[in-house]
Amino acid sequence: MRIAILSANPALYSTIRLLEAVHQRGHEGVLVNHLNCQVMIEGGNPSVLYEGKTLEAFDAIVPRIGASVTDYGCAIVRQFEMMKVFTTAKSQAIMRSRNKLRSLQVLSKAGVELPKTVFANHPKNGSVTQLIELVGGPPVVIKLLEGTQGIGVVLAETTKAAKSTIEAFYGLKKHVLVQEFVAEAKGADIRAFVIGGRVVGAIRRQGLEGEFRSNLHRGGNAVAVTLTPDEEKTAIEAARALGLKVAGVDMLPSDRGPLVLEVNSSPGLEGIETATRIDVATEIIAYIEDKIRADEGDIVGV
Fold first, then answer.
1. pLDDT tens, residue by residue, 229-257
2. Domain 97-112+184-265 maps to which CATH number in 3.30.470.20, 3.40.309.10, 3.40.430.10, 3.30.450.40?
3. Would you state the torsion angle of the CA atoms of residues 200, 186, 242, 36, taken in this order, to the nearest 10 degrees?
4. Within 10 A of 112 (CB to CB), how many other CB atoms are there?
5. Which of these, 56, 149, 177, 209, has the minimum number of CB atoms within 10 Å of its CB?
6. Contact (CB, 8 A) for 30 and 50
7. List of residues 6+ apart from 128 with CB closer than 8 A
8. Helix segments in 135-199, DSSP class H
């Protein structure tokens, strides 16, 4: 098979590992910087141009689309979809997962348990207090809709601090979510790596002392964990609800069970592979092989 890894950074651990896995499984791996791609739109013949040449004969793509270029990256993924190329993450699913509010709405509709969250359009002073009270009062977590890797996430310990933070963000014309603070999580969360409807590995991420964000990019550490049946079921349901076949599902342990924080459509491989010693990159490529084999079988059986 010929598999393209869509990545703007060839030096990233995840990019390197995916290309290694493609080659180790006996396939041809091609690194394609999606930011240097152009789409050619014409009746009945969609194509993707890369460095002046038409990209052809790909069996599958693995999108690694950065949050800051979601729209453009998804336009490229969508074009490959129109060309009938298999993708581990469809453009619509990536877009859905990247919008914090939309993804929470989809998860809520699917019955996935979430931290209590509110969203409003530039409320006035009295309304700000009401937002804080709706999620159980301080402390509360305030999140920018477009924030990633813990950036744009603030813990407000008091109503006064929450109001000041919310009003400051609104003053910058930014939309925010106000979310309950789950104290019993103690600055830790769980990331489950889901591939093709099953959990292949999971880690518990712990933030630095005094840091409520557990992101590894912010200095947190990770250890391998075995999920409870409830945690495994929740992770699989969350990925399914958003239409993601490869996903990192972030959950908070709470007194009422696992609560989904976010579902990542381009989860990093370094943290989970290092902590679990599981070859997640190969699991992704094996999933592609299985899906393409199954699709070919369906065609033969017609």
1. 999 999 999 999 999 999 999 999 999 99
2. 3.30.470.20
3. -80
4. 24
5. 209
6. no
7. 162, 163, 166, 167
8. 159-171
